[in-house]
Structure formats: C-alpha cells, structure tokens
C-alpha cells in the first residue's frame, strides 16, 4: 500500500512540476514580448 501511495505522490509531484515549469516558461515569454 505504501508503495502505491509513493508512486501516486511522485506522479502528482511530477505533473505539478511539469505544469509549473511550463507556466513559468510561458510567463517569461509573455513578459519578454511586452514593451
């Protein structure tokens, strides 16, 4: 059971990290285009 929870947490953390990095990259691109 603990292994399943760890895998679930790892998957959730990886997904959140991916979306966060993608959001930061998109935000930097948007800020860079502003005058």
From TrEMBL:
Protein name, UniProt field: Uncharacterized protein
